[in-house]
Amino acid sequence: MATDALLRQWTLYKHLPRSGSGKTAAEITELLADQGIRVHKRSVERDLKFLHEVLQLDVDDSSKPFRWARRSDALGFTSAGLTTLQSLLLLTAEVHLKTLMPRSQMDALRPLFDEARAATSRRSAGEGIAAWPDSVAVVPTAPPLLPPEIVPEVLESVHHALLDRRQIHVDYAVRDGGRREWTLHPVGLVHRGPVTYLACQIDDQEDVLLLALHRFRAVQVSTFECRRPPLGAMAESMAMVASGFNDRGPIRLVLEMDAAAAKHLQEARLSEDQTVEASGSEDWVIVSATVADTDQLRWWLRGYGDQVEVLQPAGLRQWMAETMTEAAGYYQDD
């Protein structure tokens, strides 16, 4: 029936990749079967030729079997079905992701954002909720860093490996300038600011490590299934990245802070048990909270400079004294 063919072509088109090496007719036939649409490969080939005539697909016909993909600038079938609320959420996400994702990844998402813009443009300019993206801004809490570029084929292969639970063979550039080749068992992706990390197990090692995705030079997806990660591995990886890769455990932090600098801590607290009390010094307060002693915490404390004094614990106070003394020495005249 014509409706069956339309549904098949619609589903086929939606699942064509926008980038990468594309998919063969055989791969698309399997994909349709996963969606409950069972059809012969020859029918898929006819559908692809029809869609190519109508929508100008990208086709790699340099060798057989041909590989098919959507054009990177092609709109999908979704813009007509997006509500204004869904569109504004996508456009708000675009504003936020600009500072978090490398250009190549943003380019891959751009057609989706363009569809959202097309949906909102059907309303009068500046009307109600359609004007919301113009009223929202995202400002980073630290100096904005340009996200490192990730090889598009690397990202696509890692995504496929995670979805299909497959091992990957990688060429990785380590920090000292050397290269390593490993077989990895992927666990998941962790984003921190502009950097994306792959939590994984290397070769036969049991420990879960974090590797920066932008240092992957090449990735080959294996046919072998990866082993199950240890229980809680993803949560531990998230905590490790959040801590700045060094968590020394919980401490009772006691600070004497400039009252103006500490004002925001009364609204965005360090912990549930945080207290802020008057200090013996004018215009200063005592802030106490139970927190994790992480590199992230120490970076945060150093950022306050002469507006904070660490009173407790003694070890952290000594570290701050040594660090600030050393930093002050950089500015002393010879």
UniProtKB/TrEMBL annotation:
Ranges for domain WYL come to 153-221
Query: Start and end of every WCX domain?
Result: 250-328
Pfam families with a match to the protein in the record? WCX, WYL
**PANTHER family to which the protein is assigned, alphabetical:** PROTEIN PAFC (PTHR34580:SF1), PTHR34580
Protein name, UniProt field: Uncharacterized protein
Q: Which organism is it from?
A: Arenimonas metalli CF5-1
